[in-house]
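Observation: inputs received (chain + 5-amino-5-deoxy-1-O-phosphono-D-mannitol).
Thought: call the complex predictor directly.
Action: predict_structure
Action Input:
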Amino acid sequence: SKGTYPYYMLKEIDEQPAVMRRVVDAYLPADGSVAVNQSLLQALDQADKLYIVAAGTSYHAGLVGARIFEEMAGLPAEAYLASEFGYHMPLLAKHPLFLLLSQSGETADSREVLVNVKKQGYPVLTMTNTAGSTLSREADYTMLLHAGPEIAVASTKAYTAQIAVQAVLAKALGVFRKREVAKDFDLRHDLSIAAAGMQTLVDEKEQVKNLVAQYIPNQQHAFYIGRGEDYPLSLEAALKLKEVSYVHTEGFAAGELKHGTIALIEEDTPVMAFITDDVTAAHTRSNLQETEARGAHTMTIVSEHLAQPTDNIVLPDINPLLSALVGIIPAQLIAYYAALGKKLDVDKPRNLAKSVTVE
Ligand code: M6R
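Observation:
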């Protein structure tokens, strides 16, 4: 039940620190080991490319995960949209392994890919939030997300759980491959830092509510921008805002905006920038200024170590590979308050179903 919460979405946003701790309890014992199936690690070790296939928010989590697999495990990884992959498969690597990410484990587009690649004899791993879901039953290997039941149509805690569980697997594979960078990756610690950071952000939700009142109510369009890790984060932030508030929102690679889309910026168009990446922070700030010069109402969501006094939302510092875990919290809250302000049914946006079981 949603208890004292007006909507499941807000309850599920608030649950994310606890979800991080559950992932730690399930996979990362105090002795520093990682509790992941050894035959899965052997199969991954033999793979030359990881194909992460998913839809919607799960696809956005896959984009974040791909980078973690490459960095920690040295395994080339790429995320694909299930609805495209099912029918237009790229030329595959010699030894592909498929990771199907799905909160529900019932998404038809993802199942189509699973059936297809299994027919071709390739190993498949699924990560789902429901033990016994179709995708978890039909795969060779499965890992549980431990987010707990997600009721709101807009996915929140499953996204952060998917990032955390992919990081678990990347760490396990990196250690299996005796990579120094993976041995040094103290994920148990990093996820507890993430949980604490998430807690700070959900405790400060009033601040986000006030920003929403200033930025969103009369807008038909909005943008999220970011570079590096902040780009897939922008895509997810935009999906959240548009699906629950019906404000048309695009997520953009900050440097790409000026190659066309900046033409859409008008007086007071909200442009919200994620700035968590040291290398590109200054570039993103100047991209944001370019939009401001064209009238945009700009908002910054910035990691503490990069923050300046005029920034709007400060994110607690965490391992940069995991920055989406804290970065998404204010964006989820922005979406929630934007929908609430319009008196919409936050948990059941129009035209949407919780699990999409048609192709
Ligand atoms: O259950 P799945 O993770 O496979 O669902 C995938 C998408 O349908 C889902 O993430 C959808 O985009 C949500 N409405 C996003 O909030």
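Thought: report the result.
Final Answer: The mean pLDDT is 96. The CA atoms of residues 205 and 333 lie 7 Å apart.
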